[in-house]
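Suppose a colleague, Dr. K., hands you the sequence of a protein chain of 192 amino acids and asks what its three-dimensional shape might be. Before reaching for any lab equipment, you can write down a predicted structure in token form. Begin with the sequence itself:
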Amino acid sequence: MSQEKDRALQEIVFCESVLAKAGLNVLLETFRDVPEITAWEHYPPGDVFDPQSGAQWFYHCHPAEEGATEHGHFHCFLRPEGREGPIHHLAAIGVDAYGRLLRLFTVNQWVVGDDWLDAERTIALLPRFDIQMPRPSYLVNRWLTAIFIAYEAEIAGLIGKRDKVLADHRPVDGSSPFEDRALEVTAEHRLG
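The predicted structure, expressed as tokens, is then:
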């Protein structure tokens, strides 16, 4: 294991441990000051954006399904030209109701409506995902950044697989694979 990955894994544990001291986790911290959680809404409202790195994220959940372990996921993006420039989805991070990591995954373009980049150019953006912002929580922001460092190889593999799945996909209605609502998650890596 590389030293950088080892440090990032330690950072993930550190952020979770500090939150746990106060009876919190990454979800409770993300939802701080939120009176009611609504499916499909972005949390925090307006997303989190770091103007220095161009990294951006939001959390959302889908309507509750009986027996589902995933509460929701953090969608992570990069805007290399700043807030008004193109936005590129890097990966999503699925967590359970206690904020524990469940999976990393990529999605089809229609899911997030981003400005599409092929795998090579998307993977090149991964090292730039670095959120150093105080709100909504410095610890949640550092936790997400550490996940991108610790699992960079896995995320890069998912992005490569995403492109292969889309290249091989043939929608039954003949539409573009990027717009086929039958294809939402293009690749995933289970954790734990």
